[in-house]
Specification:
The protein has helices at residues 2-17, 25-31, 38-52, 56-82, 118-134, 144-157, 163-195; strands at residues 100-101, 107-108. By secondary structure, it is mainly α. The mean pLDDT is 94.
Length: 201
């Protein structure tokens, strides 16, 4: 069963990865860089400051926890534990996977192992956190999941992750986002209670 899933993962990768065109390569590569999404991050920070004001630091701690959980669980635990080579490092896929040049002309292959995707975990973690934070105030916030999906898809386009890496990484991110949100909610309640202790009757 596991072998069948791995083979299916490879087939889906090769199909999706084959849908490329030269003019799109540098755009997709740039879109995986933090700088490309700096305006979005600034907007999200503005929303936090605008709505939470003095409690902004509490929300930021929740975001930090979300990213730490998502990134460290995939990078420090899953990748070295499972040791699944990325498609770009898989000998049986050499010559079959489309890889993209960096801006300096070198081929981008990513690190040795790819299960699970840290990009997917981080972006879905952030999307989940902000969705839970603003879902009742800003109906459009759910579009962040589309951003997370696009960011995750770029990893397949670049040939450095299998769809299975993305799916599991996204799941880790969702769980990390929920944990980060619950932490900031608890901390917010704790700080509020310390500032306004219940009156003793």
């Amino acid at each position: 069963m596991l072998d069948q899933l791995i083979e299916l993962d490879k087939k889906i990768l090769l199909f999706l990865n084959s849908l490329h065109t030269p003019w799109l390569d540098p755009i997709v590569y740039f879109s995986t860089q933090t700088l490309a999404w700096l305006p979005l991050y600034i907007l999200l920070l503005y929303l936090i400051i605008k709505d939470y004001k003095k409690e902004t630091w509490i929300v930021l701690l929740g975001i930090v926890l979300t990213i730490l959980l998502a990134d460290q669980f995939t990078t420090s635990f899953m990748k070295p534990y499972f040791e699944r080579p990325r498609p770009s490092h898989e000998p049986t896929l050499q010559g079959l996977v489309h890889l993209v040049n960096r801006f300096n002309g070198e081929i981008y292959t990513g690190g040795q192992y790819g299960f699970a995707s840290s990009h997917a975990a981080n972006t879905f973690g952030v999307a989940t956190f902000f969705f839970l934070l603003f879902k009742t105030k800003k109906k459009w916030i759910g579009w962040l999941f589309l951003w997370a999906a696009i960011m995750s898809y770029t990893r397949i386009y670049l040939g450095v992750h299998y769809p299975g890496d993305i799916f599991v990484g996204g799941l880790v991110g969702v769980l990390a986002g929920i944990a980060g949100f619950k932490f900031q909610h608890w901390l917010n309640q704790y700080v509020t209670n310390r500032k306004n202790p219940p009156a003793i009757s």
